[in-house]
Please model this.
Amino acid sequence: MPPNAAKPDTSASTLLEVHYLMLLSRAFEERLAILYRQGKVLGGIFSGIGQEATTVGSTFDLEAGDAVFPLHRDIGVCLARGIAPKVLMAQIFAKATGLSRGKVDYLHSGDPDLGVYGSTSMLGSSLPIAAGAALAFKLKRSNNVAVAYIGDGGTSRGDVHEALNFAGVQRLPVIFIVENNRFAYSTPLEKQMAVEDVADRAAGYGFPARVVSGNDLMAVRQVMGEAVRRARDWLGPTLIECKTYRWHGHSEHDEAGYRDSDEYLEWKSRDPIPRFQTYLRERGVLTDEIMEQHQTETAAEIEAAWQFADESPFPESHEALENLYGDES
Amino acid sequence: MPDAADNKPADEPAPVTYLEAIREALYEEMARDERVFVIGEDVGAYGGAFGVTKGLFETYGDRRVIDTPIAEALIVGAATGAAMLGLRPVAEMQFADFIACAFDQVVNQAATMRYRFNGRVSVPWVVRCPSGGNVHGSMYHSQNPEGWFFHTPGLKIVAPATPYDAKGLLKAAIRDDDPVLYFENKYLYRRVKQVLPNDDFIVPLGQAAVRRQGGDLSIIAYGGGTYYALQAAEQLAEDGIEPEIVDLRSLNPLDTETIFESVRKTTRALIVHEDWQRAGIGAEIAALLAEECIGSLDGPILRVTGRNLPVPFSPPLEAFHLPTPERIVEAAKKLVG
Model:
């Protein structure tokens, strides 16, 4: 961990690494949307396009041994943690080469070696589990942290209250990232809560909250770095509310007609990727040459990921019986 | 099953109660494995609502015995997360009935975790659930909710009826790498006593125990049901009927071999449990007997169980509900003819 760790590393190589990951995440999800339209997808796709600063920005600076609990819209978290695009693609296409060998869909699996614990459709249920991971870190006197992701929608569930309350009481090393994209499927914020900021609730649990522009990559990194430092110093949890927006519907079949088109265009104009690119160019870090290189390489990686997934076999049917229990029960 | 008398040291140790046996298991497993910790409501300084965890906090401190707010979903969920990250929590539901507040965490999260990660993640927790009626607990302090979880893939379930099994099964459950629901019967806490061996014995999951040999019928029971069946057996013996009592001890995994062996011998099956009748574990056992032992059966498969009612409060109503020795005797006589 570098000294003064609350300030994120702004070396050119690091910044370009972050840039690459954002492009990779965007390319991955754009490809998924196309595959969906081609009728090749099994089940649902839950696009996080537009939220890359939140997902990549909150994950990038974590260390080995930290545990993240991403939700369905957090492909950027999985990629930033080091899950290979081809393994993620195979997972989404239910192949034997995916994270779960076809046992479960989408991001409901993960990779424990990379500290990625994907969750469940019962939004909010992952938070007590993330609190438990943080409890394990506390009991083991480890300096690792747990990071739990939740949308504005999921925060209404009781499990979230129980987790935040316990985390506050026990001063657990957990960071709660609320990805507030203003909609829970079709339900707008004003039908979900009587306050504008989810962050208001943190005071009730005895720990601080930060509200940040979820489309500002460096701001997310900065705030996250401070929260992680707090947690590693045993000062307890932080709630980080990232204000952001999803460009697509809740899932790909959802045209999101419930949203105001002016609002949508306004948020689209705040695309986190060009915004970050402006920052990089101003610092002389991003050149046209590097930009083209990143675009070409991410496109190639995603193409290879799709080929890998497409050509991978499905699991054998007898595998359905495997790994329910640790023994032959 | 080893006779408890075989391991007695020279000076005669005192018998321990079912409750004390649970406490001994916790003490010993926490000494043996530093990853084991206890979490629940009032389990720490207070020693637990029933006194099961008394002394653990003083011995092991607040990093091994954790008092929580009233938050069952958090208790189970945090146990799941801690278990995924390498610890071995023993969580407590103050009453089994409250596990309903954590239902999603049990059935959708803990039960599926290993499967979702295709074996790369496991959830080696135990959730202790004080269950059972006949304690004037009414419908929220008397339940036997094991049926819901027996139905759910991915969980293991045990239900001891003796101090030996209470200790041995809890140790086995703690050492098991899967989520185990441990249904302890609170009516038995101080009612059954046994001298226990001094050594580090465990009772493996998936093994039933024949409590009483007999040739006239097989009574298949567990937990409180075993206790009532043993009482019924004494009355039946006076009337010349010798039941064989199969104490399941482990519900999932289930020892079907012992069940089938007994029923093939006696040719008559009576299943006893406190849990509700409809689609209870008895219904599953009856279906398995019908599938595997139909040729051996000389009569219908009967069940004496909790009625399909919220456990009633007033004594005559609760007595109507429970699988009392009287109801068991009546059913056994009907079966034997």
User: Anything to note?
Assistant: Chain B touches chain A through 46 residues (CB under 8 Å). The domain at 14-194 of chain B is CATH 3.40.50.970 (Rossmann fold). The two ends of chain B are 32 Å apart (CA to CA). Confidence is low (pLDDT under 50) at residues 1-5 of chain B.
